[in-house]
Amino acid sequence: MRNKDELCGIIDALGALSIEEIYIAAKEISLLRGGVPLTLPSIKDICAEAEKEHLVAVVSWEEIEGLEKNDISYYILGPNAFPEIPFELSEVIDILEMSTRQVDLSRAASRFSKNLHKKVNNLENKIDSIDPAKFHPEDLENLEHRYSDILNQYYDYSFWLPGDMSAIGAEIQQLSKRIEVLKSA
Q1: A single Pfam family, by name (predicted)?
Q2: CA-to-CA distance for 82 and 9, rounded, in angstroms?
């Protein structure tokens, strides 16, 4: 595996993979290429970066069809991914006897929406706790950064996930108005 796009390609081809499964597949691809495999910590770092960029998302066993209860997190393709399927992947799938998993995005949508709602509430609470007399420009910059992250995540998720996210959209609009009030104070 050379980059995050290949990570996305591996996940796209197989539906959902644990970090260990990604590591094993990436290792096998590297060996077939005659290269040095990435270490497990390196794979974890690539996955963490890809998750921050919404190239991949993390789900639980409950959101994958046919899995039994476990404590493993699985990576699925995210809304910003542009997968690049490694040429060697079909051979790796045969060698490792891997099979495709089906993700129930409607179940995942519910959890992702709840998490986004929590971020909105946390930012609202932060705005509520601000003392206008002690408000610094850095505070506003921090609030705007957090708001921007929430807004980007909302647009990514509303495009990618099934269901109506307009309620969260309305909450985000209210956040925007509250930040604008702070800016004008």
Answers
A1: DUF7109
A2: 8
Cα–Cα distances (Å) from 145 to 13, 49, 122, 137, 169, in that order, read: 34, 18, 14, 12, 17
Helix (H) or strand (E) holding 124: helix 105-128
Per DSSP, what are the bridge partners of residue 76?
57
Ramachandran quadrant class, 21 (left: phi over 0; alpha: psi -120 to 50; beta: rest): alpha
Cα–Cα distance, 140 to 10 (Å, whole number): 40
Q: How crowded is the C-beta side of 137, counted as CA atoms within 13 Å? A: 0
* C-alpha–C-alpha distance, residues 183 and 137, integer Å: 9
Residues of the chain with CATH 1.10.10.10: 4-96
Could you give the CA distance from residue 78 to residue 50 in angstroms, rounded to a whole number?
9
Q: What is the pLDDT of residues 44-81, one digit of tens each?
A: 999 999 999 999 999 999 999 999 999 999 999 999 99
Tens of pLDDT, residues 8-25: 999 999 999 999 999 999
CATH architecture of 4-96: Orthogonal Bundle (1.10)
| Tokens linked to 29 | 């691809």
Structure tokens at 41: 């910590």
